[in-house]
Design a protein that fits this description.
The protein is an alpha+beta fold. It contains six helices and eight strands; from the N terminus they run E-E-E-H-H-E-E-E-H-E-H-E-H-H.
Amino acid sequence: MIPVDVVGISVCPPYQGYVVILKEKSGDRWLPIFIGAAEAQAISLLLQGLEYSRPLTYDLFNAILSAGGIRVLATDVTQLRDNTFYAVVHLKNMKGESKAIDARPSDAIALALKTKAPISVSEEVMAGAGIVGEPVNRSNIETISYLNQKLKDAVEVEAYEEAAKIRDQIRDLEQQQRMAGEKKSESDEEESDSDKV
C-alpha cells in the first residue's frame, strides 16, 4: 500500500464533477477520484478545519465508533473495477479485534480525516489511475466550501444581508469555475482537432 495525503478538492471540467485529490507521500503521483458534491464539501471542510453547527455523516460515524470503543486504524483505496474505486476502513475494538469494512472512498477518506487515520492506495490502483504532475487547481472550490459554511452561519444568526452578499460571492466563483471548465474543454477540442491535421 502507498501512503497518501489528501491535498484538496477540485472541479474537473468539462462535466463540472468533483474530485478528491490524493498524492503519494514519497513520490510524484496523484490520484484524482470522482465524488459527489456533498462529499466534496464535507472533505473540503475537514481539510480547512471547519465544522457545521450540527454533526455531518462522518461526525456521526466517528461518534458512534468512539461510543462503542472502536478506533479507526487506517483507510485504504484498494481496487478500481469498471471505473469505480473501492475502499476499506480498518477498525479495532476494545478487545483488540480488527475488522475491515467496505466503504466508498469518499466516506472512507472523510472518516480518516476526521479521526486523523492514515490513508493508503494500492499500487495496482495508483499504477492504473494515478497521474504525474498536479492535475487540477483547487483554490476556487476550497473558497466556495468556506463561503458555504459562512453562509450557513449567517443564516443561523439571521444576518440575512450578510448572507445575501456571501451567496453572491459563491455564485460569482461558481460561474468562474464553469467558464474555466468550458474554456479548458474548448482548448482541448482545438488541440485534438489540430492533432488530426
